[in-house]
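Thread: Newbie trying to understand structure tokens

Hi all, I'm a second-year student working on a class project, and my supervisor (Dr. K.) asked me to get a predicted structure for one chain before our next meeting. I've only ever worked with sequences, so writing a 3D structure as a token string is new to me. If someone could post the tokens and maybe explain what I'm looking at, I'd be very grateful. Here's the chain:
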Amino acid sequence: MMESYKQEFIEFMVESKVLKFGEFTLKSGRKSPFFMNAGAYVTGTQLRKLGEYYAKAIHDNYGLDFDVLFGPAYKGIPLTVATTMAISELYGKDIRYCSNRKEVKDHGDTGILLGSKLQDGDRVVIIEDVTTSGKSIEETFPILKSQANVEVKGLMVSLNRMEVGKGGEKCALDEIKDLYGFNTAAIVTMEEVVECLYNKECNGEIVIDDALKAAIDAYYEQYGAR
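---
Reply by user tm_fold:
Sure, no problem. This is what the structure looks like when written as tokens:
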């Protein structure tokens, strides 16, 4: 049985037009029957809800025994802010938020970090919207490590696309786990999305019908992680 917040989150992604179905060409050149654009969360209500879904998934996967939530710039910045607020609201736990700047600041609040400074021994959870290739972790992991001797407890993304990453065999989340040695998790997987939306009504319409289901199956035939 799927947790109710997962089901709610899937419907929320569709309602917010963050998860779309049709024909899309991805940055990787792959032609995909679905596309996720986390930039479509734009209202206060959407961000508040999004923070709550991330908070519940982080709580489920990693517990709350950590100090800092780190979100890579730029998209990770609102995610960390919304989620640390939700963790405080839902669980009464104060987690510090931290992001990197794209350019180092040399005056006032100097350095490469925004939000909390990192300290030796800090336990960190990284938060992202979706990981297709793991490129952003490649950029941010060295930044984290250069700032302090931190322990990365895990990475949380909103959707696991479950398709092969750069290595061509495993999905990006598994590649990251192998490469950096920390755990990875998603609020929902694409498999759960299909299970939740296939021939079921969402907002009064069937989101994934037989034709779309066939297109998604064909996509995974070609690009699915084994």
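A couple of things are worth pointing out once you decode it. The first strand starts at residue 19 and ends at 25. The chain has a mean pLDDT of 91. Feel free to ask follow-ups in this thread.
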